[in-house]
Amino acid sequence: MKSVSKTKSKERRRAVEGTGDAVVYSAGHAAGILLALAGMALQWAFLHSLTFLGTVLGTQAEVEPGYTCDLCVCGAGNSGLSAAVEAAQQGLGVVVLEKQGGTGGGGIGTEGVFAVNSEMQQKAGIAIEPADIISTEMEYSHNRANGLKWFDLVQASGDNIAWLKECGVNFTGTVDDYHGGKFETFHWFGENRAHDDFSPAMTKTAKDLGVEFLMNCPAVELIVDDGGAVAGVYAQKLNGDYVQVNAKAVVLATGGFANNDEYLQEGGFSDTTNVERFLYGYDGDGVRMALEAGGADNIPRMSGLMQLTVSGKPGGEYGTYGRGDGLVVAGHNPCSMWINEDGQRFCAESAGVENWMSDMIPSLAHQKLYAIYDAKVFKDAYDGMIAPRISWEETQAELAERIEQNPHNDFFSADTLDELAKKASEALGLDYSTVKESIDAYCEMCEQGRDGYFGKPKEYLQKLENPPFYFSYMPQSVMVTFGGIRTNRKMEVVDKAGKPVAGLYSAGVDSADLWPNIYTINVPGGTNANNINSGRFASKFAAEYLGSGKMGSVTSEGDTSESKPERTWSMPEGKLKDGEYTDTQFGMFSDIAVTVTVSDGKIASIAQESELETSYVGVAAMESMLIPAVIEAQSVDDVDTVAGATRTSQGFLRAVAACCEQAAS
Can you point out the beta strands (E) in 8-135? Predict the structure, then answer.
């Protein structure tokens, strides 16, 4: 089978790698033309080993016969799982395509679900007025959000909790049980979040209902018939083989485009060469496929989990999004000072006081954001952290080490503001006089208690006068994006005129347009609530679209072997020598330092240190699954990565193999 390259649609062309050729026709159009010429309906028998020209597949490529079903769901995150279960309950035959090796996607870290007037709330005596939620959200977005979608979500939210419980999802309580009623609309999972309490239960329920999962097999292109209706999906295994899924409808739930620079730029990001990512593999596949099929986008109105961080994103997940690292939070403390790439102050630095998702928004109009603050701001920022990752003493040591090593040449300290301005300006190519003028003007306004430029409230006008002083570049960061695919109330993908693309739906963050331009965080668990509700809505209306024409099952033929990642680690030959061996490899968020102890020629114990890997996914996978498995097998050769913790597993197993190499040499 030929190895082929990816390109964009006709609107967003890119050169095919290695050839420079642009591809015009979609695979679906090519298939539709062939079928039209033959005067045939879209039949499985015709599509065996189809050769075609596609926008993603690029050149002629053999496609293995695969699956025929009613509905294909692209993505097995929280929205995809919800869509799959709902579709199966609607009597549809369902195939789920997933890029990663396990279910849950980026949603495995979600802590719970928003809902109004659920049975759990009623039993707790919690009463919420739905209209209050909707009006608050609509006012925050200046009514740019679709009020009917908010209405649908809020009205269905209580029933969604009951449905999830019927599917085996575990909730430990409402927020009222945890925070004295501060956020009474939240329904908590347990300590290990959706990773333990949502994904396994929903996956099991789906499989029990006959849903077919194809892991490590992402959707790459939609099949569109000659009438413009979506008729299936082409997917690709890790070995390069293409799989064809013939489906009468498709739900796109691929997790957004946090790793797609082009789409981030269209959404307003100004410095994508330096933007920090916190999750991997979310490349905007769903958005691209929707556009190629004739759908419209709403990328310029995107929002998401986005905030200022520092280069290297210290603190893992919590470095930015839980305010758990001093190197990060001091820079967007409201008492710090910000300047842009021209050395000019450009906004009130208190932008994120009420909504910390607002911190990054002012930076979108500029190429760079630099934070300037003093020792008091740094200490105040640490004291105000929600979830300190390390102690104050350790934080001070981390700061000193960062400045001394300065691995990115963008973090500086000095005993005077003048010295700081000179040091940073010389290193970063800024105009010293402009930087110094900006600092002096700001300090003067702080003394006067009035921000004459941007009106920062007086309580945040704290003069920078407590050495040492700090200067840090703060790149933009993104964990997940919201929005991208334009949909209607039925979660149908629509074109620019608002007309549905027949047979195509979208769910989850791919099309989450409830928060245009900024995520409000007024509704705890709102993202997950929308994931679940939009998944259910998409499948309900897909079932309505199919009507009596549904198959109710999945059929398959040809090569349906499982797609698995290639191993990049193996055990060495020869007996292991007794001793203690250490190696370090990068996991999901940070280095993983592994120590293997060999006794009597056998692996006796394995220890790992990984400060930034998530406790509920990465650390749990290593401690509870991988370490026992390696010791039992006395090898890494027969130990698989843990679904949902693939990158952590790969880093850990590579480190263990390297330790064994040392022991065998």
Answer: 51-52, 61-74, 94-97, 112-114
CA torsion through residues 290, 296, 300, 301, sign? negative
For 413-446, give the secondary structure using H, E and C: EECCHHHHHHHHHHHHCCCHHHHHHHHHHHHHHH
107, 282 contact by CB (below 8 A): no
Nearest residue to 303 (alpha-carbon basis) of 146, 516, 506, 487: 516
Alpha helices by DSSP H, 407-557: 417-428, 432-448, 526-546
| Cis amide bond preceding 468, omega within 30 | yes
From residue 530, how far is each of 159, 185, 289 by CA, in Å? Answer: 13, 14, 21
Residue type, 575: K
What number of helices (H) and strands (E) belong to the chain?
A: 19, 23
The DSSP call for residue 623 is I
Average pLDDT over residues 97-118: 92
Residue 177 clears pLDDT 60, i.e. is over it:
no
Burial class (CB in 10 A: 0-12, 13-18, 19+), 45: exposed
Residues 634, 602: contact at Cβ < 8 Å? Answer: yes
- Cβ atoms within 10 Å, residue 489: 12
The angle at the Cα of 564, spanning 561 to 567, to the nearest 5 degrees, equals 140
In the Cβ-directed half-sphere of 224, how many Cα atoms lie within 13 Å?
Answer: 22
Pairwise CA distance, residues 657 & 594, whole Å: 10
Query: Residue 310, SS3?
Result: coil
Beta strands in 475-587 (DSSP E): 476-482, 492-494, 500-506, 555-556, 579-586
Closest CA to 247 of 500, 47, 490: 47
Are 481 and 277 spatial neighbours (Cβ–Cβ below 8 Å)? Answer: no
- Please give the DSSP secondary-structure letter assigned to residue 572: P
Give φ, ψ of 447 to 5 degrees: -60, -40
Q: For 408-435, how does the pLDDT look when each residue is reduced to its tens digit (9 = 90+)?
A: 999 999 999 999 999 999 999 999 999 9
Q: Hey, CA dihedral for 7, 8, 11, 13, is it positive or negative?
A: negative
Predicted local confidence at residue 20, as pLDDT: 26
Q: How would you label 373-401 residue by residue, b for 16+ Cβ within 10 Å and e otherwise?
A: bbbbbbbbbbeebeebbbeeeebbebbee
The mean pLDDT value of the chain amounts to: 87
